[in-house]
Amino acid sequence: MNKITKSEQAWREQLDEEQYQVCRVKATERPFTGAYYANSTPGVYHCVACDAELFDTQTQFDAGCGWPSYSAPVSEDVVTEIDDSTHGMHRTEVVCTCCDSHLGHVFPDGPQPTGLRYCINSVALRLEPRA
């Protein structure tokens, strides 16, 4: 996978303000407001910043947390997990391996077989529906 690097100005020109704030500044969209929170269209979610394939709707589930949740990425190498101790708590941040865009966080309270819940901001994703 080729690493994509751009200046902050280039990211600002490519992404809208909300996408920029989430993907590059590590903000979080408000719960229950994202376009994909209750998605029922089958397909594959891509990174909004670099178009890398990240999550398949087959792994999406309703965690009731307010953000789209997935039990696994499309492959282990498409996301990178980073220790996150911000906001007075310990979490694991999830970023796109290809462009380092912040996607959300992963928690160990998801369904089997992985037991993981990838809690991802809708604004960091673009759904490509299955044909």
Distance between the termini: 25 Å
Task: Summarize model confidence as the mean pLDDT.
Answer: 95
Judging from the principal axes of the Cα atoms, what is the shape?
Answer: globular
The CATH level-2 architecture is identified as Beta Complex
Give the biggest sheet: 6 strands, antiparallel
The helix content, as a percent range, equals 10-25%
The parts where pLDDT drops under 50 for at least 5 residues are none
CATH topology: Metal Binding Protein, Guanine Nucleotide Exchange Factor, Chain A
Indicate the structural class. alpha+beta
The radius of gyration is: 14 Å
Q: Quick one: how many beta strands?
A: 9
Number of helices: 2
The top-level CATH class is Mainly Beta
Q: At the fourth CATH level, what is the homologous superfamily?
A: Peptide methionine sulfoxide reductase
Tally of individual domains: 1
Provide the spatial order of strands within the biggest beta sheet. Answer: 3-4-8-7-6-5
**Percent of residues in β-strands:** 25-35%
What sequence of helices (H) and strands (E) makes up the elements?
HHEEEEEEEEE
Structural write-up:
There is one protein chain. The protein is of the alpha+beta class and 131 residues long. It has one domain (8-129): Metal Binding Protein, Guanine Nucleotide Exchange Factor, Chain A (Beta Complex), CATH 2.170.150.20. It has two helices and nine strands, in the order ααβββββββββ. The chain has helices at 8-14, 17-25; strands at 43-47, 53-56, 60-61, 69-70, 79-84, 91-96, 102-107, 117-120, 125-129. It has a six-stranded antiparallel β-sheet. Strands 2-1-9 form a three-stranded antiparallel β-sheet, with no helix packed on it.
